[in-house]
Amino acid sequence: MIWEIIVSALLVMAGVFGLVGSFGLIRLPTTMTRLHAPTKATTLGGGGVLVASMIYFAVFMDHYSFHELMITLFLFLTAPITANLIAKAYLHRTERPEDLPPTGTDRGWATYDASADPSRRTDG
Amino acid sequence: MIEMALIFAFACFGLGLLMNLWRVTVAPGVPDRVLALDTMVINAIALLVLYGIWQGTAIYFEAALLFAMTGFISTVAYARYMLRGDIIE
C-alpha cells in the first residue's frame, strides 16, 4: 500500500513537472528564459518517471534493474551540456559582445575569446 | 491507484509533446526549434518508460536508453551546425 502511494506520487509529480517544462517552452518571453523550463523541469519529470518505474518493477514485479538509474544519470549529465551549447549558439547568432552585460572581471565573455574559437587558434 | 497516476502522467507528457510540436512549427528562431526537439526527446523517453510500466515489461528501457543517446548526439550536432554551419571540421 505504502509503495503504491509512493509510486503514484512520483508519477503525478513527474507528470506535473513535465507539463510545466513543456508549457514554459511556449509561454516564456525570450529564448534565454525559454532555455530554463525544458532543461530543468522536464529533466526532473523524466527522472521522476524513471525512478517510479524502478520502484514499481522492484516492488510489484520482483524484477530488480538499474537501467533506469543509468538513463536518469545520462539525462542529468546531458541536459546542462545541451543547454550550454544551445545558449552558446544563440549568443553567437544574435548578440554582439558589446551588447552583453559586463562580466565584473578584466576578461570578457569567455565564449567570444579567440582562444575558445578553434578556427582562429594558431597553436594547433 | 497506480493506474490513475499512470493515466495522469500519460496525459501530461502527451500534452507536453503537443506543446513542443507547436514550438517546433512556430518559433522565433532556430535555437528555439532545437530546444523544442530536445524537449520532445525527453518527453518521448518518459512516455516510453510509462508504457513499459503499463505493459509490465522491461523491454522498453533499451528503447529509452537509445532515445536518450541519439537525442543527445543529435542536439549536439544541431548546436554545432548552428554555430559553424558544419558538423565535422
State the main characteristics:
heterodimer; A: 124 residues; mainly alpha; 4 helices; 0% strand; B: 89 residues; Helix Hairpins; 3 helices
Q: Brief description of this entry?
A:
The complex is a heterodimer of chains A (124) and B (89). By secondary structure, chain A is mostly helical. Chain A has helices at 2-27, 31-34, 36-60, 67-94.
General description of the model:
The complex is a heterodimer of chains A (124) and B (89). Chain A is mostly helical and 124 residues long. Chain A has helices at 2-27, 31-34, 36-60, 67-94. In chain A, α1 packs antiparallel against α3 and α3 (36-60) packs antiparallel against α4 (67-94). Chain A is elongated, with a radius of gyration of 20 Å. The model of chain A has no long low-confidence stretch (mean pLDDT 83). Chain B has a single domain, classed as Helix Hairpins, CATH 1.10.287. Chain B is built from three helices and no strands. The longest helix of chain B has 26 residues, at 30-55. Chain B starts with a helix and ends in a 5-residue tail after the last helix. At the A-B interface, α1, α3 and α4 of A face α1, α2 and α3 of B.
What's the layout of helices and strands?
The complex is a heterodimer of chains A (124) and B (89).
Chain A: H1 2-27, H2 31-34, H3 36-60, H4 67-94
Chain B: H1 2-25, H2 30-55, H3 60-84
Q: Low-confidence runs of chain B (pLDDT<50, min 5 residues)?
A: none
Report the principal-axis shape of chain A.
elongated
Biggest sheet descriptor of chain A: none
The shape of chain B, in one word, is flat
Which range does the strand content of chain A fall in?
Answer: under 5%
By DSSP (H or I, 4+ residues per run), the number of helices of chain B equals: 3
**Compute the gyration radius of chain B: what is it?**
15 Å
Integer count of domains of chain A: 1
Ends apart, CA distance between termini of chain B: 53 Å
- CATH top level of chain B is Mainly Alpha
Number of strands of chain A: 0
Strand portion of chain B, in percent?
A: under 5%
- Average residue pLDDT of chain A: 83
CATH architecture of chain B: Orthogonal Bundle
Give me the secondary-structure category of chain A.
mainly alpha
